[in-house]
Amino acid sequence: MIYVLNGPNLNRLGTREPDIYGKTTYQDLVDMCQTVADDLGASVTIRQTNAEHEMLEWLHAAADEGADVVLNPGAWTHYNIAIRDACAMLRGKLIEVHISNVHQREEFRHHSVISAVATGVIAGLGIDGYRLALEHICR
Ligand code: DQA
Asked: Where is this site: Transition state stabilizer (predicted)?
């Protein structure tokens, strides 16, 4: 099982700052990830939460399973050490994905506390970043 996990505010895709995040809705993102996984013959579970404890529980379960994770931690990227510590427990691959190019944006988005424990990072390619992450994991 591959987990695609999305953090806070990503359920608002489509209406949230469309100039930055595009007009694709969260449901479109879910459908795209499912289609990509089906084409790759992979099993995927796609989730979003605004609650830190829920994300931590999902990461713990992925760690226990040794599963690969595609994670867009949203704003948690920049400050959440508990999420980072849970990411450090993962035994499979961890691909950190950002829809926007965080390095082109405000200074506080330039640093990720997650990247040092990630296998790799994709930023600025829109929702295509999720497809690339899934393809990499399945390669
Ligand atoms: C984001 C970038 C973060 O800085 C921001 O807080 C988000 C989304 C992205 O996908 O570009 O919520 O992770």
From this structure: 16
Helix runs in the chain, H state only:
18-21, 26-40, 52-65, 81-88, 128-138
- pLDDT tens-digit series, residues 109-136: 999 999 999 999 999 999 999 999 999 9
- Name residues contacting ligand 1 (CB within 6 A): 9, 72, 74-75, 77, 98-100, 102, 109
- Give me ligand 1 centre to Cα 75, in Å: 6
Domain ranges of the chain: 2-138
Tokens describing residue 18: 């469309």
CATH topology of domain 2-138: Rossmann fold (3.40.50)
Nearest-atom number in ligand 1 for the CA of 97 is: 10
